Amino acid sequence: MSHIGSLPVLIPQGIKVVVDGSEVTVEGSKGKLARRFHPDISITREGERLLVSRPSDVRVHRELHGLTRSLLANMVEGVNKGFERILEVNGVGYRAQKVGNKLSLQVGYSNVVEFSPPQGAEVSVEGTNVIHVVGIDKEVVGETAARIRAIRPPDHYKGKGIKYREEKLHLKPGKSAKTLGKK
């Protein structure tokens, strides 16, 4: 039995969940999410809990069991609390600005890079080097943060670029450090 899939998803106070066959709609204070799941996986509501079960122990059903439960838990948490990814812009002259609905990045290219966030993700800038990506759909928030980071990934030699706040960057010594002791 899947350890993750067998856990019930607890529904907090104020969250409305509608299960219609393989489609689940979750509505809360932050917004509304709807998703269609695989028809083989059954989702039932018992009081203030959502239970996910599978028809057999076939590998595909075992995989879908845990995935469905995780996606349901993320939907409930998203409409209740929301999700946030924080990115930092590091480098001399590197900065981020919010211009209207777009994110304007100066990250070492000859031109300013404009980034438009997708529907479901909101981008804000704190100071000139901290970017907050906020939304109710964990998938959209993570994808948006990854696309912003991909504009200028962190350099492991100089430490410049866009990185996640919790990301530890290990700087490499470079070529001159190896030949410094030889003469």
Feature tags:
183 residues, alpha+beta, Outer Surface Protein A, domain 3, 2 domains, four-stranded antiparallel beta sheet, three-stranded antiparallel beta sheet, 3 helices, elongated
CATH architecture annotation of the largest domain = Alpha-Beta Complex
As a percent range, the share of helical residues equals: 10-25%
- The top-level CATH class of the largest domain is Alpha Beta
Query: How would you state the average pLDDT, rounded?
Result: 92
By DSSP, the count of extended strands is: 13
What's the layout of helices and strands?
Elements: E1 9-10, E2 16-20, E3 23-27, E4 32-36, E5 42-46, E6 49-53, H1 59-80, E7 83-90, E8 95-99, E9 102-106, E10 113-115, E11 121-126, E12 130-135, H2 138-151, E13 161-164, H3 175-179
Antiparallel strand pairs: 1-6, 2-3, 3-4, 5-6, 7-12, 7-13, 8-9, 9-10, 11-12
Tell me what the structure shows.
The protein is an alpha+beta fold. The protein has two domains: 9-80, Alpha-Beta Complex (Outer Surface Protein A, domain 3), CATH 3.90.930.12; 83-164, Outer Surface Protein A, domain 3 (Alpha-Beta Complex), CATH 3.90.930.12. It contains three helices and 13 strands, in the order ββββββαββββββαβα. It has a four-stranded antiparallel β-sheet with strand order 11-12-7-13, covered by helices on one side. A three-stranded antiparallel β-sheet has the order 1-6-5. It has a three-stranded antiparallel β-sheet with strand order 2-3-4, with helices on one face. Strand 11 (121-126) and strand 12 (130-135) form a beta hairpin. The chain is elongated and about 60 Å long.
